[in-house]
Structure formats: C-alpha cells, structure tokens
Design brief:
Helices cover 82% and strands 0% of the residues. The protein is mostly helical and 125 residues long. It has one domain.
Length: 125
C-alpha cells in the first residue's frame, strides 16, 4: 500500500494512457473495418483519456490533479453503469462476462486513491 501511495501518479498515468490508447485503437479498427463513422464519441473519449493521463503526468498543481481525478471518477462510475447494463442484457450466455466489471471497479479505486492523496496534501498545506 505504501508503494501505491508513493507511485500513484505513475500508476495512474500508465493505466489511463493504456486505456485511452486501446480505446482509440479499437475505434480506428471499427472505422477501417466496418466504415462506421457514427461512433465518433469513442474517438473523442480515447483522445480525452490520453490527454488527461498526460496532464496527470506533467501538471504538478494539486487542485488540477484533484479536478482531473474527479473527472476520471465520474468516467469510471459511468463506465461501471454501462458495463453493468451490458452484463445484465448479454451476461446470460457467458459466466466470464462478470470479469469485465473489474476494470471499472479498478478505475474507481484508482481515482479515489488519487483523490485522497491529493486531498491529504491540500489539507496539510
């Protein structure tokens, strides 16, 4: 736990950058494979995750990091809600679909750890 508390910015940067890049690559795959231009929102979401992760890495202001972690928490809760809906509608066929809920839960925990670390620094100052 001490290691995570010291390296929370590095872990967050890598985790959110990985999610943004994978979402962007998946959107490009759908775009080139199916010529589907209607899901532009996932492209914007992937780019936004990449930008937020880069801001987490470069910005040293605690209030901006707190704002970014709040945005990531809202994204994670929304992602958990929509994954839950998908699991409810399509989860009857496969028992492994519940594992997909682990990623949004990990996102929520990572966002909360990031917020708590920055809140504790804000209170100390």
């Amino acid at each position: 736990m001490k290691w995570l508390n010291k390296k929370i910015i590095v872990v967050s940067f890598i985790w959110w950058l990985l999610q943004g890049v994978l979402l962007l690559l998946n959107e490009l795959r759908v775009l080139f494979e199916y010529d589907n231009y209607s899901t532009f929102s996932f492209f914007v979401l992937g780019v936004s995750l990449i930008v937020i992760s880069l801001l987490l890495w470069y910005v040293k202001d605690k209030t901006i990091i707190l704002l970014l972690s709040t945005l990531l928490l809202i994204y994670s809760i929304t992602q958990l809600f929509f994954f839950g809906i998908l699991l409810f509608f399509f989860g009857q066929r496969n028992n492994w679909n519940g594992l997909f809920l682990l990623i949004p839960i990990f996102n929520i925990l990572l966002s909360i750890f990031l917020m708590l670390k920055n809140l504790s620094k804000e209170i100390k100052e």
